[in-house]
Design brief:
With 107 residues, the chain is an alpha/beta fold. It has a single domain, classed as Rossmann fold. It is built from 4 helices and 4 strands. Strands 2-1-3-4 form a 4-stranded parallel β-sheet, with helices on both faces. Helix 1 links the parallel strand 1 and strand 2. The chain is globular and about 30 Å long. The C terminus is likely disordered.
Length: 107
């Protein structure tokens, strides 16, 4: 499967993990944007639509459910596919997705 032209927005709070993701995805041919703050991530998403968002459960001190709601609630970013990155257990993942899944079940 070719990744040529596909872009990934990486919102990962841990610098080492972010760098590993960058190297892995760049090596697979993806265009990567990986800002280190929520504000920069939101600006990047609004300015250049990514194909996929990799979202850390606690990126830059914000809850993933709040960030996910913000992304899915804005017309410029609503269609971006999201992959949640979590080192927590299933309960943690459920808390991240629960509020957003109710509002955006069609996405």
């Amino acid at each position: 499967m070719s990744a040529a032209g596909d872009s990934v927005l990486v919102l990962e709070g841990d610098e080492a993990s972010r760098r590993e993701l960058e190297l892995l995805l760049e090596g697979a041919g993806y265009e990567i944007s990986s800002p280190d703050t929520c504000e920069a991530g939101l600006r990047a998403a609004r300015g250049k639509v990514a194909d996929v968002l990799l979202l850390d459960e606690q990126f830059s001190g914000r809850k993933c459910s709040d960030l996910l709601a913000e992304f899915k609630g804005a017309s410029a970013t609503a269609d971006i596919r999201v992959i949640l990155l979590s080192s927590g257990d299933a309960g943690c993942r459920s808390r991240c997705l629960w509020p957003s899944s109710l509002r955006f079940s069609s996405q």
